[in-house]
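User: I've been trying to design a sequence by hand for this structure and keep getting stuck. Would you show me what you'd pick, starting by listing the structure so we're on the same page?

Assistant: Good idea, let's start from the same input. This is the structure you sent:
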């Protein structure tokens, strides 16, 4: 008997990930400990019994920062109710329509139609655990434009999703090709143009058994042409992604959602990845993979999050207007005692994305 994972992509034209039900529980098997185990080879105890795929100690030992989305689903359905009451719902930042108790916004609003305030939290899971390119030539051809002109470049990643063996119930995006759409760019910016071949590219990819799995962009500035080094501009002291890049990532993730049977509308989150090509601490060309959270996707979808003009690392929450009500957005900051005390603050002006 075979079963598929409960969540697949809306446009998933890759081979469906199918495994035997016995291998789908994701439990991490452990060998018998010769020092601690007092039973025979057929027995199991707390020192050698299988671990759940979301076990925090195991993930920390393996240096896995986020557990996989399917491990998250397993955790939700692991209780006595077996997931009977599990319902994954997207965050809503808009006034619910159809309320007849008062005139429409801005003349009236009530607790039944008003969206709840949002507290930004770290998302514990991720939909894709790794991005892998089938060969180096894919990236080298993409980087040739920057090497020739010094201008930045954007491309869409086409490939497949597959099982990632190093993360319990993990998924890996395997990239087979990069498609570079019409665009105008210079040293500091990129502007995407209308693509008349967009649908044809998707159809060709479908016939080849591929799909869009993400997007890639460069942020490279040469430091020494002779040695081939680039500037290290993205780090913990500056930013890893700008607000504008997070907003574009959120837009694309909303465009390519993740199919999920535990959601009321059939979709939750996204497996669409973001890859940034920039300089690392050794001033070498380096790639980093990202994905924005479901909270960010909702803020982008409902037109609540915009970039700031003078600080690329800061985002801005719109003010409510006659045309749009925007809920309060809170974030948590630690005081001098950090892990002990946290304070929530409402934020509409710039905050780190």
């Amino acid at each position: 008997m075979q079963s598929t994972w409960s969540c697949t992509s809306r446009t998933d034209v890759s081979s469906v990930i199918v495994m035997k039900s016995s291998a789908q529980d994701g439990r991490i098997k452990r060998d018998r400990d010769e020092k601690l185990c007092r039973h025979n080879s057929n027995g199991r105890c707390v020192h050698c019994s299988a671990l759940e795929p979301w076990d925090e100690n195991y993930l920390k030992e393996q240096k896995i920062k986020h557990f996989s989305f399917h491990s998250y689903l397993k955790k939700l359905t692991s209780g006595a109710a077996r997931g009977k009451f599990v319902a994954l719902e997207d965050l809503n930042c808009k006034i619910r329509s159809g309320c007849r108790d008062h005139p429409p916004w801005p003349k009236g609003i009530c607790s039944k139609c008003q969206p709840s305030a949002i507290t930004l939290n770290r998302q514990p899971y991720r939909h894709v655990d790794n991005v892998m390119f089938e060969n180096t030539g894919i990236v080298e051809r993409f980087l040739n434009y920057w090497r020739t002109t010094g201008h930045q470049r954007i491309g869409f990643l086409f490939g497949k999703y597959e099982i990632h063996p190093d993360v319990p119930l993990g998924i890996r995006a395997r990239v087979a090709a990069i498609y570079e759409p019409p665009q105008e760019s210079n040293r500091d910016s990129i502007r995407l143009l209308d693509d008349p071949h967009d649908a044809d590219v998707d159809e060709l990819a479908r016939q080849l058994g591929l799909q869009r799995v993400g997007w890639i962009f460069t942020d490279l500035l040469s430091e020494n042409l002779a040695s081939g080094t680039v500037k290290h501009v993205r780090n913990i002291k500056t930013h890893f992604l700008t607000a504008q890049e997070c907003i574009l990532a959120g837009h694309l993730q909303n465009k390519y959602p993740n199919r999920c049977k535990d959601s009321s509308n059939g979709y939750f989150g996204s497996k669409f990845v973001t890859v940034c090509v920039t300089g690392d601490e050794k001033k070498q060309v380096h790639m980093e993979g990202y994905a924005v959270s479901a909270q960010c996707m909702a803020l982008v979808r409902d037109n609540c999050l915009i970039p700031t003009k003078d600080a690329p690392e800061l985002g801005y929450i719109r003010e409510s207007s006659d045309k749009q009500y925007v809920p309060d957005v809170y974030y948590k900051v630690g005081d001098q005692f950090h892990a002990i005390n946290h304070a929530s603050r409402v934020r509409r002006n710039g905050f780190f994305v």
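That's my pick for every position. To get oriented when you compare it with your attempt: The helical segments are 56-61, 69-76, 136-149, 198-207, 243-255, 294-301. The domain at 123-292 is CATH 3.40.140.10 (Cytidine Deaminase; domain 2).
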